[in-house]
Amino acid sequence: MEPNVVIVFKIENKNYLTVSDLSEKGEWKTFEINRGDDFDSFNHEEHKPRVGKGYFITQDDMNIMVEEINKHIQKCPQTLFPGEKHWSNTVSAVHIVSPEFAAGPLRVGLERPKIVIGFPDFLSIGPLRNLDEKIGQKLRNEWLHENINFEQDDYVYLNKFTNTLREIDDISDHVPIYIWCGNNADEQTGLRFILYLLRDKKNDIFIINSTKFYQRYITSKVEEQYVFSTGQIEAKNLKLIFEKSIEGKPLSDRDRKQFNKEWETLSQSKEVLRLWINDEIKGVPEHHFDTLILETIEKLHQEQGNKEFLLTARVIGEILKQMNEVIGDFFLEYRIRHLIYSGVLELKGIPKSMRHYRIRMR
Fold first, then answer.
1. Could you tell me if 228 and 313 lie in one domain?
2. Looking at 260, 282, 304, which one is the last position of a domain?
3. Structural domain ending residue among the three candidates 80, 103, 126
4. pTM of the entire structure?
């Protein structure tokens, strides 16, 4: 950006960073050097920082900086923090779950010492091709950016995705790995992708089907309630499920190869919507839920007695009550916008999020 300016960021700990971390926290200092070719020999501890002058940094440049800092944290942990043990050498198990929101109850419910990695994505939607590589992540990010209102800053999704891949890669070979999943396309797709990422690791890997064990051990003790995802289960019940399933055997090499094969097939599919049908992940057309969306709006209009505009968030809430599948509200909002642009629905407001606009049938 400036040929004689050096910006120094202080790495405080081993946690990987996002663009928002750089802009909201962390210690920065700015230095000037005589010529650009002095950079290689520059040591900030031998110079005084400049005071009273700031620089505007674009999101693109911030993302480049984040990637460089995170690469350094991963590559040189002992240089940065001499004498500290790697985190995976101090825990008894690593638990991985997708999507990320399901990690919270696991962190609360499971005994320490353990690490819980929440995968920051909803893999029942969007393209999957080459997702373990930068090119696939970029293509997926572009599709999400063009279609899904995640209501977050540019690059934050990509940063968090890449950082999670780093955390998985950092797992030491001796620690057992538990992958949690429910009977839904989101978590089952995540299971296969995570196992693919772990394909070269020698760890014992266990699969805990949270919804299956919930039906076996929990629903007989409480009011009958069917759950579809790990994130629906309370922390205390996740602890019970783990205690009941801990005696299971790790995945065999044969099973691991089969899951990897299934991921390779999934990653070649062109569908951007997947459902869990008859214990299999099935790709369906992206307009699969459009009829349900329109029927729900018609029903709400009938309850009104007229065709007043309906808050989009309310419509999506009503749709989710009728579904036996874990489909994020973000995807349904995407399909509602498609029906607006297609002239089927009428819009009032600005569709920057489901809380900011209303809809009705034309």
1. no
2. 282
3. 80
4. 0.90
